[in-house]
Design brief:
The chain is an alpha+beta fold. The protein has 8 helices and 7 strands, in the order H-H-E-E-H-H-E-H-H-E-E-E-H-E-H. The relative contact order is 0.11.
Length: about 230
């Protein structure tokens, strides 16, 4: 007689609650000191199997900045378990996704020095324009259990000196609580596939000089530092 397999729920604790849990543990000075002194890896997980605290040994092992940067992820995601990204679907952006995308884009304020406040109406208007020109614009989202966890937005262009064509990544953002799961890499692969479909032969991305996490990520997935981009707002 075979036993029915029982699987842990896929639901996740929201990012705000994760921050509260991490803060509460960090304030327990004795616990924090003892765990940080342990040479072996120590992780504290919540009921949804997400990390809410990690000791210094594990943080150093992953070459991360602090325990806070690990919070919200699951151990398999941090250690790049082969199954950790299997539930992610990457598909084209739909109008019904826009409210979730507005919230997701708002997270860019944490890593950009410019005023990037996202306005619902502006995002909806821009999307309506983009879908009219599918040869110029493509937008893809990463979805897990009907929840938008990532976005990539691209524009395609040609120049007189470049016969092929270039795909430029305008925005690439992954939910704070879902990073280091390979979602950004999956979105870039979707962008490259779309660029090839439209006849482009290269892909480019720009990021602020001070955003070292983004720069490290783009180098990790194969981008090379080729140009210096100057900008002027008016």
């Amino acid at each position: 007689m075979s036993e029915e397999a029982v699987y842990a729920a896929a639901e996740r604790t929201q990012a705000g609650k994760i921050r509260e849990q991490y803060t509460a543990l960090s304030r327990l000075q004795t616990l924090s000191t003892v765990l940080s002194a342990v040479p072996e890896f120590v992780l504290v997980l919540n009921k949804d199997r997400q990390v809410v605290f990690a000791n210094n040994a594990f943080v150093r092992f992953l070459n991360m900045d602090s325990p806070a940067s690990l919070c919200g992820r699951r151990p398999g995601e941090l250690l790049h378990c082969m199954h950790s990204g299997e539930m992610i679907e990457v598909r084209e952006l739909r109008s019904g996704d826009l409210d979730a995308v507005v919230s997701l884009l708002g997270q860019l304020d944490e890593v950009t020095s410019t005023d990037s406040r996202v306005r619902d109406r502006s995002v909806h208007r821009t999307y309506e324009l983009m879908v009219r020109f599918p040869d110029l614009y493509r937008n893809y989202v990463a979805v897990e259990h009907s929840r938008i966890v990532g976005l990539i937005s691209l524009v395609f262009y040609k120049t007189l000196l470049h016969e092929g064509g270039t795909a430029l990544i305008n925005e690439l953002v992954v939910s704070n609580s879902e990073r280091r799961r390979g979602i950004g890499t999956q979105l870039i692969k979707a962008g490259i596939a779309a660029a090839r479909e439209c006849g482009m032969d290269e892909i480019e991305v720009g990021t602020e000089r001070g955003n070292r996490h983004a720069r490290r990520f783009y180098k990790h997935v194969g981008f090379n530092l080729e140009y210096v981009l100057f900008g002027m707002e008016f």
